[in-house]
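User: Continuing from earlier, I have the next pair ready.

Assistant: Great, send them over.

User: Here they are, in order.

Assistant: Folding the first of the pair now:
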Amino acid sequence: MKEIILHWQPVINLDELILGKIKIHPAIYVWGWFDADKNFVPYYVGKTNNLGQRFISHLGCIKGGMYAIYSKEYAISKNFKPLKEEDETRLLYIPSTIKNWHTKFNTYPVQKNVKWLLKNIRFSWAETSMEDNKDLEKIVYHAFNASAKKVGAYVKGIPDPTIKVLHTGDESIQKIVPNLI
């Protein structure tokens, strides 16, 4: 069995991300926010070979209406989980059609929550090797989702059972994915 140790960097906000120097390196990463009880809510798990560029891409997608927008109240609640249909109080916007983007994305309620998300988005990552990234994305996604059940972006495929991942580093991340994998 192959064993990989992921050392998660401290969960940082957008300002820290902008001010810090992120090296260009392969990584597994997660972004999300903290709920009302100060627990990290993992929303997106991904892989990249250029961390800084990928984070910029996510921010552009949020600002441009490429991701679902939840109300702050629902996002920080204990009941948060990704939804598939818009409603008035929880899931305010889904990037489903050009018409939906044109009529809903630029409305005050959606933009207010886009601003909240950009202010409260948090990132963490663990450096990896490119050859490990494909399998690690599946393993980490399934680990976060099994524990938190809040990851919105779906990663296709079943994790490789011959790889064991140990998580070290940031405590917020370790609370979600203890070394039970």
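And the other member of the pair:
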Amino acid sequence: MIESNVSSKNNKDLIFLAALLAAGLIFFELWMATTNHDNSRDQHLGAAVAYAKGHIDLLRPMLLGFNANGAPTPLEFPIWQALTAVLMKCFGIWYGLGNIVSLVFLFSSFWVMFDLCRRLNSRRTGWWALIFSLAQPLNLIIGAQAGADSTAWAFAMWFVYFSYRMMSEGRLSWWLLAVC
């Protein structure tokens, strides 16, 4: 009897492919940043640079180009801008740090998606979902872009994950995490 790959517990082929795609995504984004081929959203990166040069005030958010008169413009809570500014304060102003922060948020959402698919279906389904997410062009163009989009995507994925765990397990702690 021939054993099917689908029923196999060995996912080394998918793990290798996922690692290869992840390394390719990281290499591509860091290559873009080091060769001055900007992959950024100017208003978000500009706010991070302004925070890095001055002080970080989360209660008075600013986005360059949106608050011409100096009034705070709360389009979003500037978590991405603040984290990027902290790195810029530590290591100097380099626009590639924004790509690194975006990559961290993007990859945190990949783990959540993998675990959610694993819980709903199987470990192999989780690996396939991860591979398809890593291979989609949207992640090359926007996912690791120096901007707040990957942060929003990561928070949305974490919300779905925490909500699923709350509904499936009925524990209040998951509700608190989903609300945060």
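Worth noting for the second one:
The chain is about 70% helix and 0% strand. The longest helix spans residues 96-120.
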